[in-house]
Amino acid sequence: MKFYMTPGSCSTGIHILLEEIGLIFEAHIVNLVKGDHLKPEYLAINPNGSIPTLLRDDGTALTSFTAIAIWLATAYPRRKLLPEDEAAKQSALEMMHFCVDHIHGDGFRRVFTPERYATSKTPIEAVQAEGRKIVAAALQTVNDECLGRDYVAGTFSIADASLFYVEFWADKISMELPPYCRAHYERMKTRPAVRQVLAEEGYRI
Ligand SMILES: N[C@@H](CCC(=O)N[C@@H](CS)C(=O)NCC(=O)O)C(=O)O
User: Fold this and answer.
1) 49 CA from centroid of ligand 1 (Å)
2) Which residues contact residue 134 at a Cβ distance below 8 angstroms, ignoring those fewer than 6 apart?
């Protein structure tokens, strides 16, 4: 399989899942700053021009975080990346969507690419402030929902990989993590696969 990723981006969450499963894959670095994701050869694989992308052995590509994560959990069931218990499984899926669609899509997208939202009435700084507000409120929601559990759905699941990358970003921009998120973030960093991925992507723990 070929995995298209950018160090320190949302693809870090998928990178963690690939290492948790112990898969052998070819890593391709997509340099977003240089615009690699908009080059015709990349768009031919992922027409959305986004990362992550997983090009599977049968030649088909999965082009979103959630599609890749759910496919990995389904294709490698022995690794139990989704809980067997139906209610726990639903809460893992809901939390993953919340992290990817809301915390990342509505919040961090405003923080990291404010020019996409800025208007003459809403300058870049205001867009970024709004993004931070969305992230802070959403992490508080995660905190209130997950307090008392080691992982989002009890045991480690694909939801934890998605929560980890948004916690990682919040930490990098010096946002305070609410108690559950801080503990979850630290717990994640003790996992060998997470440590390996962060080291490979050039981060010191
Ligand atoms: N909804 C997409 C979001 C992925 C995404 O936004 N990735 C960012 C990097 S973290 C990206 O590719 N940005 C480049 C761009 O949007 O131009 C997914 O689930 O994979």
Assistant:
1) 8
2) 102, 103, 106, 107, 110
